[in-house]
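Cross-posting from the modeling subforum.

Setting up a comparison between two proteins and wanted a second pair of eyes on the formatting. Protein 1 (sequence, then structure tokens):
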Amino acid sequence: MIDNLNNSSSLNILVSKLNKLMLCSPDVLNYETLASEISVNLSTLKGWMCRKRSPSLKTIDKIANRLGCHTFQLLKSDGQLENNGVSANDSVTAFVQNLQVIFNKKRKFNLIEKCDLVNSDYKPGDIYITETMLTSYLRKNSRRIPPLKTLDYISRSLNIESYELLMPKIY
């Protein structure tokens, strides 16, 4: 299980991987190039790298698409990044599908039971997932996208790693 207060948070893993990539190939990938290619301000990217801000899952999809890897690989601490030619990551859909499968396996069919499950490891300082929030994550159109901190919290409550919630068809 992940402890979100240490270096294994999704943001820390992402930043560490991006830093390693930039150190290994600064002529191919640097802050300016990456910011331009994923359509964010350089200051925004630097905010992520300093861990003052956090990118959305859609933005992490853009980074993974640029690198040709799966989004979940960017959040897996021991995973290698391989350019597999992936260019159409959709981690939000994978997140919803995986949550639905987990709810079904754990026989959580109504909204209150689902909320209880995703909040089962609540600690002070966590963002409590309300019924409205969970509904907004699961709806078919205009889905709300959880930030990385919330993804970490949900995965901790489900006793799985955050990246597992973003893997296409893991269950």
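Protein 2 (same layout):
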Amino acid sequence: MNQTFTVTGMTCGHCERAVKNAVLELDPQAQVSIDRATNRVDVDSTQAREALATAIAEEGYVVAD
């Protein structure tokens, strides 16, 4: 299932990798696309939205609804 998150606080490539790795830890088969300029994170995953948002937030980023 495709889901889009607005994630603020990503300021560099390291931040993008941290967000991507957080999702992949939860679902190694997930497809993750990040556009830092628009704070957009697209995730294609079978995991629940809440679980994905929590994984990203635990890395220190703010996830908007």
